[in-house]
């Protein structure tokens, strides 16, 4: 459970008030609070000024990363087609790594990019499974030579499977070279950037056209809540805006105030929830100090777990931990198929009812993932999981020993 009492209270307010702030006039307070909250969170993360309302950019609360991805892909598509003509849509290419969340492939299909024009760039242990700029450059150059048009590049800060961080600055420079839209997906790990020691992972964000982070993952906020910042709100609204006659009389504050935002033009649907209030409650309840303590407590527990696993000769850490996600497995090379052994271990732990972990497959290897992220998770809980793992590992290995 990664929500909180404050998030729960904010969710109740959102539901109970039943405000639907799709246009400014529907609830000026909701629209303006969203802009304030988005700049607050952006400054906490150390985002560049160009992505904030105070610097000419702006932010919106989407329901999920999937929605944010579709919106930014649509904005990138329309920006390119305004220059190339609509017939060129079959030439547009989207780039991501084999560690990037699959939602980007889904989003590309939804905005009309042919599946054959989605490039999954391979990563390897040599690069820490991060997306190397050289690999992107090679893929882009091949496509340009074939007459295709590079459109969109995703850099991930904290990949779903391994928690890997892509080199944002290097990828941003590659995107600039061909006029691609650079999106930084920090859905999980972006929350950690409120701590100064983690802000370096967002180095190069000033080169991004958009950045997203999900407070409902690690920021004590109830689902659904996804922060999306864009450097050019006009690019987003040009692709998503609608102007039917029945909304023309309620689309502004009546004074021509340019600060009045119709958030219906920043998202897929017209109607929307009052998400800003629950994020506002969390920020006011915990503050920067409380939220940083929350993140650091989880990271400290994950560090301990990583060290402990690495010290046990039966286990191996598969990828270096960067946040609160530890990826490990039983070596078990002496006792039959290692993947079978690890599958049994994970099943035994989850069947105990005392802990729940998930898996990933990288380089053909079955990997167990421990994510420390619960609102009430403490070091003792992680230590208890380690004791459970040791007991279950011994039981599983006993059956495989010759």
UniProtKB/TrEMBL annotation:
The modification N6-(pyridoxal phosphate)lysine is found at residue 217. Residues 1-25 form the signal peptide. InterPro entries: Aromatic_deC, PyrdxlP-dep_de-COase, PyrdxlP-dep_Trfase, PyrdxlP-dep_Trfase_major, PyrdxlP-dep_Trfase_small. Belongs to the group II decarboxylase family. It comes from the Eukaryota. Gene3D superfamilies: Aspartate Aminotransferase, domain 1, Type I PLP-dependent aspartate aminotransferase-like (Major domain). This is Uncharacterized protein. Its cofactor is pyridoxal 5'-phosphate. GO terms for biological process: amino acid metabolic process; carboxylic acid metabolic process. Keywords: Decarboxylase, Lyase, Pyridoxal phosphate, Signal. Transmembrane segments: none annotated. It comes from Panicum virgatum. One of its GO terms (molecular function) is carboxy-lyase activity. The keyword Lyase applies. GO terms for cellular component: cytoplasm.
């Amino acid at each position: 459970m990664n929500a909180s009492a404050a998030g729960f209270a904010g969710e109740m307010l959102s539901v109970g008030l039943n405000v639907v702030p799709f246009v400014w006039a529907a609830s000026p307070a909701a629209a303006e609070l969203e802009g304030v909250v988005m700049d607050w969170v952006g400054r906490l993360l150390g985002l560049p000024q160009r992505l904030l309302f105070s610097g000419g950019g702006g932010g919106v609360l989407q329901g999920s990363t999937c929605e944010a991805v579709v919106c930014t892909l649509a904005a990138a598509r329309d920006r390119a087609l305004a220059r190339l003509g609509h017939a060129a849509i079959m030439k547009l290419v989207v780039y991501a790594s084999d560690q990037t969340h699959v939602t980007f492939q889904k989003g590309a299909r939804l905005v009309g990019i042919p599946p054959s024009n989605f490039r999954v760039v391979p990563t390897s242990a040599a690069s820490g499974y991060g997306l190397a700029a050289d690999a992107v450059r090679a893929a882009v150059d091949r496509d340009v030579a074939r007459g295709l048009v590079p459109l969109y590049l995703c850099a991930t800060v904290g990949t779903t499977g391994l928690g890997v961080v892509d080199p944002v600055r290097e990828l941003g420079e590659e995107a600039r070279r061909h006029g691609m839209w650079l999106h930084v997906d920090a859905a999980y790990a972006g929350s950690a950037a409120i701590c100064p020691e983690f802000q370096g992972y967002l180095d190069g964000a000033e080169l991004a056209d958009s950045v997203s982070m999900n407070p409902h993952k690690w920021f004590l906020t109830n689902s659904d809540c996804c922060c999306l910042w864009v450097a050019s709100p006009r690019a987003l609204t040009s692709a998503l805006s609608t102007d039917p006659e029945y909304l023309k009389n309620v689309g502004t504050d009546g004074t021509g105030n340019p600060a009045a935002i119709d958030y219906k033009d920043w998202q897929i649907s017209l109607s929307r929830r009052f998400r800003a209030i629950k994020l506002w409650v969390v920020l006011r309840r915990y503050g920067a100090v409380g939220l940083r303590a929350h993140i650091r407590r989880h990271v400290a527990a994950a560090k301990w777990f990583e060290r402990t696993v690495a010290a046990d000769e039966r286990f191996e850490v598969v990828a270096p931990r960067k946040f609160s996600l530890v990826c490990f497995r039983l070596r078990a090379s002496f006792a039959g198929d290692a993947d079978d052994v690890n599958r049994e271990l994970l099943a035994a732990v989850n069947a105990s009812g005392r802990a729940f972990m998930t898996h990933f497959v990288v380089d053909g290897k079955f990997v167990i993932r421990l994510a420390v992220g619960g609102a009430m998770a403490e070091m003792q809980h992680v230590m208890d999981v380690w004791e459970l793992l040791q007991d279950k590992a011994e039981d599983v290995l006993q059956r495989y020993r010759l």
